[in-house]
Design goal:
Layout (H helix, E strand, L loop, with lengths): L4 H7 L7 H6 L6 H9 L3 H11 L3 H7 L6 H4 L11 H12 L14 E5 L3 H12 L3 E5 L8 H4 L8 H13 L3 E3 L10 H6 L2 E6 L5 E2 L12 E3 H6 L9 E5 L3 H12 L4 E5 L9 H10 L2 E3 L2 E7 L2 E9 L1 H10 L8 E3 L5 E4 L2 E4 L3 E2 L3 H5 L24 E3 L2 H4 L4 H22 L1
Parallel strand pairs: 1-2, 1-4, 2-3, 4-16, 6-14, 7-8, 7-14, 8-9
Antiparallel strand pairs: 5-15, 10-11, 11-12, 11-13
Helix pairs in contact: 1-7, 3-4, 3-7, 4-7, 5-7, 8-18, 13-14
The chain binds iron/sulfur cluster.
The site of iron/sulfur cluster has 14 residues, from helix 2 and helix 3.
C-alpha cells in the first residue's frame, strides 16, 4: 500500500472543532470519529457510520477533490502534510462494504421510481429502500453507475466497485430495469398512473456542450463524454488535441495516453487549468502536454486552428480603476495569430448539459434559465411528486455534491409520500 493508513490515523490530532469535517467535507463526514473508531479496532462501526452518512463513501474516497476539501482543510496541513484522510476512508469503506449491516424498515407498501442509476439515483434508491419503500430503478445503460461507470476511467474508479454496489442494492430488494429510457415509449405520467407514489429524476448531464466553431462535425472530432463512455472503440491516432482543461479533459488525456496515443496536448485559453491540482499533476506525470494561451478558431481535417491569446490589459486596468478584484485574468485574442496545429484527433471537453428526452415527453416538466431541470428548495420539479437532483438539475458537478443534495431530497420524498398516503 502506497500510504500507510495506520500511520496516517496516528497522526490525526482529533481536533475538537475539526476543520476537515466542518470546512472541508461537503457531506460533513465525521472524520475524527472515523479515525478514532479505526484506531480502537472498531472498523465495522466506522464503516457503518460512513455508509449511513454517505452511501457512496467508498466512491467519494477515490474520486473527490480531497485537496480542496477534507485534506485541504486539515490543520496538520498548515505546517506540514495533511492527514491522508481519503486513504483511511477508502481502506475502511472498501474492506467492510460486503459486511455492512443494512437493516431496512419493514415494507410500508409504497412504491417509488428512480430514473437514472448514477450517483444521485443510487443514493436516493438506497435511502428510500432502507426506509421500507419498494424501489424500481430505470436505467438507460445496461449497468448501474451513470457517470461513475461511463464517465470516469477505470484507473480512477474501478468498475468492480459499482458491481459491488449493484449486489448490495439487490440485497436491499431494489429492482432494476436496465437498457430502458423513461421518456421514450414510457413517460413519468405512466409511472404515476401505475401507482408509484413519487418519482425521482437523476438522469445526469450527458449532452456534450458544443464549442460552436466550424468543423465540429468532422470525422476527426469527438466529445469527451462520448469518448470516455467506451474509449476502446476509438482510433485516435498518435497526435491528440484536447480542448478544455477541466477534470474531464484530464480523464480524456490520461485515457488516450493509456490507449497508445503518443502526443496528447491539452490546449488552454488562459494561464491556468480548471482541473484539480491532483488531476493536473497526474496528467503531467502521465506525459500529457499543456499549451497555454491558445483559443480554438476552427477545426480542419488535419488539425485545429488556434489563435494566440494575451492578457487583456485594458480590462485589467478598468477593473483596477473601479477597485474590483479580478478572480481570473481576462485574455484576448492576438490579431493575425491564427495557425494550424496538426492533430489526428480533436477531443472537445468543455462540459455537458442534460439531455432533453424527458422534458420533450413530459411537457409539464419545466427547465430553469440554464436549461437544467427546474426544482424548488425541496427538490420538487414542476410536476407534483416528481423530484430531481444531481447533474440534471445543477449541470455537471461533483459526485459528493450530488450525494449531499440527494440525501436531503430522499427525506423530502419520504415526507411527501407519507403525507399523501
Ligand atoms: Fe484529524 Fe486533520 Fe481532521 Fe484535525 S483536521 S481531526 S488533524 S484529520
Amino acid at each position: 500500500m502506497s500510504v500507510h493508513v495506520i500511520d496516517e490515523a496516528n497522526r490525526c490530532l482529533q481536533c475538537p472543532n475539526p476543520r476537515c469535517r466542518e470546512n472541508g467535507c461537503p457531506i460533513h463526514t465525521n472524520i475524527p470519529e472515523m479515525i478514532r473508531l479505526f484506531k480502537e479496532n472498531r472498523m465495522m462501526e466506522a464503516a457503518q457510520m460512513l455508509f449511513e452518512n454517505n452511501p457512496l463513501s467508498m466512491v467519494c474516497s477515490l474520486v473527490c477533490n480531497h485537496g480542496n476539501q477534507c485534506e485541504g482543510n486539515c490543520v496538520r496541513g498548515i505546517k506540514g502534510e495533511p492527514i491522508h484522510i481519503s486513504s483511511i476512508e477508502n481502506y475502511i469503506s472498501d474492506s467492510c462494504f460486503e459486511r455492512l449491516e443494512l437493516n431496512p424498515a419493514p415494507s410500508n407498501g409504497m412504491k417509488a421510481a428512480v430514473i437514472g442509476a448514477g450517483p444521485a439515483g443510487i443514493t436516493i434508491a438506497i435511502i428510500l429502500a432502507l426506509k421500507g419503500y419498494s424501489i424500481t430503478v430505470f436505467e438507460t445503460h445496461d449497468k448501474i453507475g451513470g457517470i461513475l461507470r461511463y464517465g470516469i476511467p477505470e484507473f480512477r474508479l474501478p468498475k468492480s466497485i459499482l458491481d459491488r454496489y449493484y449486489k448490495k442494492m439487490r440485497e436491499l430488494g431494489i429492482k432494476f430495469r436496465p437498457n430502458f429510457s423513461v421518456g421514450g415509449s414510457t413517460g413519468i405520467q405512466d409511472l404515476l398512473d401505475d401507482g408509484y407514489k413519487s418519482v425521482f429524476i437523476g438522469t445526469g448531464a450527458w449532452k456534450p456542450k458544443r464549442l460552436g466553431v466550424p468543423g465540429e462535425t468532422f470525422g476527426n472530432v469527438f466529445y469527451a463524454i462520448n469518448y470516455l463512455n467506451n474509449p476502446d472503440v476509438y482510433e485516435l491516432g498518435d497526435r491528440v488535441a484536447i480542448i478544455g482543461a477541466g477534470n474531464a479533459a484530464m480523464d480524456v488525456a490520461r485515457t488516450a495516453i493509456r490507449h497508445g496515443s503518443k502526443e496528447v496536448v491539452v490546449y488552454v485559453r488562459g494561464d491556468s487549468v480548471g482541473a484539480s491540482e491532483a488531476e493536473y499533476e497526474y496528467a503531467k506525470v502521465d506525459g500529457v502536454k499543456f499549451e497555454f494561451r491558445k483559443a480554438i478558431v476552427r477545426i480542419e481535417d488535419d488539425g485545429a486552428v488556434f489563435s494566440d491569446m494575451e492578457p487583456d490589459e485594458e480590462k485589467i486596468a478598468a477593473s483596477k480603476a473601479k477597485g474590483e478584484e479580478l478572480k481570473k485574468t481576462p485574455f484576448k485574442v492576438i490579431p493575425n495569430s491564427e495557425h494550424l496545429i496538426p492533430a489526428d484527433s480533436i477531443i472537445i471537453a468543455i462540459s455537458q448539459v442534460p439531455q432533453d428526452r424527458l422534458v420533450n415527453h413530459d411537457k409539464d416538466l419545466k427547465l430553469n434559465e440554464k436549461g437544467n431541470l427546474a426544482t424548488d428548495s425541496k427538490g420538487e420539479t414542476s410536476l407534483p411528486g416528481v423530484f430531481a437532483s444531481g447533474d440534471v438539475v445543477t449541470g455537471a458537478k461533483t459526485v459528493v455534491a450530488a450525494v449531499a443534495v440527494s440525501k436531503q431530497i430522499a427525506e423530502d420524498m419520504d415526507k411527501y409520500m407519507k403525507n399523501k398516503d
